[in-house]
Design goal:
By secondary structure, this protein is of the alpha/beta class. Helices cover 35% and strands 23% of the residues. The chain contains six helices and seven strands; from the N terminus they run βαβαβαβαβαββα. It has helices spanning 13-22, 41-48, 61-70, 87-92, 116-124, 160-181; strands at residues 2-7, 28-35, 52-55, 75-78, 97-101, 129-136, 146-153. Strands 3-2-1-4-5-6-7 form a seven-stranded mixed sheet, with helices on one face. The longest helix is centred in the last third of the chain and has 22 residues, at 160-181. It is globular.
Length: 185
């Protein structure tokens, strides 16, 4: 069985999409949900499914690695995790960490580019198309190889919130589709 850890910082809507995609599967499961925030709703979603949870400081590479190794984790999915993964973790799980980003990378990525900031930047740049990217994580923010894009039209009169709502749905679909292609589902 493929064992997946999910790192999340917020509500866990992407985590829920992964739970739904893996429901009833015998060959893959989310076995750990970790967050940098004790109040992250993602942890509650995991506890409701009896999945192990942990709160770990974003700079605690040794703590993260200990959790991942104890859980015999094969893949890590960053699902709304807003902190940089320590280099030691990236190196240990090279090409086995997926991140979802709410823009068409390499545009509108990098340090500080998350949430509505990304969508505001897309609108300010006058882009006609935005979307979501799933990429492998490396040592640089949002610079690892992109493994999937999903495009979303920027509509006349869009606000960053309206664009974010459309991109979020497509981003979840892109992430779960890419997990299927990688054999995680």
């Amino acid at each position: 069985m493929i064992r997946v850890a999910v790192f999340a910082s917020g509500g866990g809507s992407n985590l829920q999409a992964l739970f739904d995609a893996l429901e009833g599967r015998q060959d893959a499961a989310v076995v750990l949900v970790a967050s940098d925030r004790a109040d992250a709703m993602a942890l509650e979603r995991a506890r409701a499914r009896a999945v192990q949870t942990a709160v770990v400081a974003p700079d605690d590479a040794a703590g993260m690695l200990a959790l991942l190794e104890a859980g015999q984790v094969d893949w890590i999915v960053l699902a709304g995790y807003l902190k940089r993964v320590p280099v030691e973790v990236v190196r240990r799980y090279r090409n086995r960490i997926l991140n979802i980003h709410p823009a068409l990378l390499p545009a509108h990525g990098g340090k500080g580019m998350y949430g509505e900031r990304v969508h505001a930047a897309v609108l300010k740049a006058g882009e006609k198309v935005s979307g979501a990217s799933v990429h492998l994580v490396d040592e640089e923010y949002d610079r690892g190889p992109v493994v999937a894009h999903e495009t979303v039209a920027v509509e006349p009169g869009d606000t960053s919130a309206a664009l974010a709502a459309r991109v979020l749905g497509w981003g979840r679909n892109t992430l779960t589709r890419k997990i299927q292609e990688l054999g995680l589902e």
